């Protein structure tokens, strides 16, 4: 009778450890883990259209993650999205003429901010603004423009 109770406790502990491991895996996959947040410095980028960019989306350069989107706000005076990027402290030599683009990971994947370095000898610091940005490409707009161009060509 004692071995049955011990087996039940071991199975229960194993199941609890499995659920805990799945929870941490889910947090890592969904980019909700708290590791690394708050470190580094903030950069501001303004976009005319951010598409479906979300807070905590990756910020990368050459395919390497440099940080995350910290916040998204709307500037009512300029009618633009103001995106705050939190860049890891290890990447503190981004040129002042760095270019920020919003891309989509795969055909239907999540959107992220990609940085392309410029050639300036000066570097961006905490609170600086990235002057050169390119908004997200919206698939619906591109399809609409294509159909409109096709209709114009057909009518000529």
Summarize the SSE layout with pairings.
Blueprint: H1 2-29, E1 41-47, E2 58-61, E3 64-75, E4 80-87, E5 99-104, E6 111-116, E7 128-130, E8 132-134, H2 139-155
Parallel strand pairs: 1-7, 2-6, 5-8
Antiparallel strand pairs: 1-4, 2-3, 3-4, 5-6
What does this structure look like?
This protein is of the alpha/beta class. It has two domains: 1-30; 41-144, no CATH class. The protein has two helices and eight strands, in the order αββββββββα. The protein has an eight-stranded mixed beta sheet with strand order 7-1-4-3-2-6-5-8, with no helix packed on it. The radius of gyration is 23 Å and the shape is flat. The mean pLDDT is 86.
Stretches where pLDDT falls below 50 for ≥5 residues? Answer: none
Separation, N- and C-terminal Cα atoms: 90 Å
Total number of beta strands: 8
Give the spatial strand order of the biggest sheet. 7-1-4-3-2-6-5-8
Helix content: 25-40%
Q: Decide which structural class fits the backbone.
A: alpha/beta
Quote the average pLDDT: 86
Number of DSSP helical runs: 2
Gyration radius from CA atoms, angstroms:
23 Å
Sheet with most strands:
8 strands, mixed
> How many discrete structural domains?
2
Q: What order do the helices and strands follow? A: HEEEEEEEEH
- The fraction of residues assigned to DSSP E strands is 25-35%
Looking at the structure, what is the overall shape? flat
Summarize the structure.
The chain is α/β, with parallel strands linked by helices and 156 residues long. Helix content is 29%, strand content 31%. It has helices at residues 2-29, 139-155; strands at residues 41-47, 58-61, 64-75, 80-87, 99-104, 111-116, 128-130, 132-134.
